[in-house]
Amino acid sequence: MVEITTGGFALKFIHISDTHFGKVYKNIDINASKILIEERRRRFEYVIDYAIENRVEFIIHSGDLFDNKDPDYVDMLFIRKCLKRLLDKGIDFYFIRGNHDKKDGIFFDDLSNVYEFSGFEVTKYDRGGCVIHGISQLDSDLRNPAEMLKRVEGKVNVAVLHSNVQNPHHNNYMPTTLNELKNLSFDYIALGHIHIPTELDYNIIYAGSLCPVSKKDAGPRGFYEVEILNKANARFIEIEGVTFNKYNLEINSIDETEAFINSQDRNQILDITLRGFVEYDELKNIKSYLESVKSDYGFVDFSYELDLKIKDDIVHPMYKLLLSDLKQGDFLEDVSFTEGYSAREDIDENFDEIKEIIDGLFRR
Questions:
Q1: Does the pLDDT at position 359 exceed 60?
Q2: CB atoms < 10 A from the CB of 340, how many?
């Protein structure tokens, strides 16, 4: 591996990724969805403000600027306004297209400070002492970007990629390995695609999504401020605001569950999985309680892994369902009975009522 040296050349920039403008939240409270849409714009403006106040040279965006192939006109105008502010302050903006972005058409071509990387080959922008390399994704792109990049000697080398680096839980677009990226001997590799901020190495980093895109995006959100003098020094800057947080709670006591929820910061969206045994007579109480919690708190989504107790001496695992996967009418198909189950007639007798109660728990 070539030892990285910048020859004393100093550089400061911002690395963001996966802003997903235009994201529609389908599985959360409608008011929470509206807040997250505004939250995304607020956070993007925060990055612009930070860049101007701290006099960075440029901002890098590592893909998925938009959430779909047909960007919303209002979002386009908003982003353009923000980029124009950067232009007025002499700050450049570099971006690649990720798997969610539209693959054709030109964005912001009237702004002289905006630079896009081609998806057909590596594009290089030479800033004098620094060269920024990047390649946008094509549809279902399985090319290995590490095989396409080559360091320019005597310069600071920065790469911008929307790539899966050995993560089995994400779409395997532009797959590569950490060792292959290290062997490139680049000064900094700005990654996008994985939404959790992740430092694979001191200079090979996923910035994560700027704003929560789904319930999976739990924890802090923000961006990286990168300074390079001899070697890269990347610092995560958290942007405070609405977050997703997931909890598993036993439903042995409704009072305990209520106390937990009431103790939580209201500046978050709770994704709570309730677990435990439920008496048949308690189903109505649970439904009433959960409805009141959603009304009072606003941003709570519940999942359920409950065992329905029909008789004192028999516990039947009626269902283990996740709210995000359940559709109205699925209840009947998801009920299964243990062979020879002696309380079947008890369930049959009250089945319509049980179904109505449980369907009510999951109704959007």
A1: no
A2: 6
The architecture of the domain spanning 11-238 is 4-Layer Sandwich (3.60)
Which residue ranges does the chain devote to CATH 3.60.21.10?
A: 11-238
Residues 123, 137: Cα–Cα separation, whole Å: 12
- pLDDT digits 0-9 by tens, 74-91: 899 999 999 999 999 999
Q: Please list the residues that pair with 76 across neighbouring strands.
A: none
CB count within 10 Å of CB 173 equals: 19
Q: Average per-residue pLDDT in the chain?
A: 77
Q: Where are the beta strands (DSSP E) in the chain?
A: 11-16, 58-61, 92-95, 114-116, 123-126, 130-134, 156-162, 188-192, 198-201, 204-206, 222-229, 231-238, 243-250, 268-279, 300-311, 314-316
pTM, whole model, 2 decimals?
0.75
- The Cα-based distances of 263 to 63, 257, 340, 343 in angstroms read 37, 10, 45, 40
Measured in residues, the chain has a length of 364
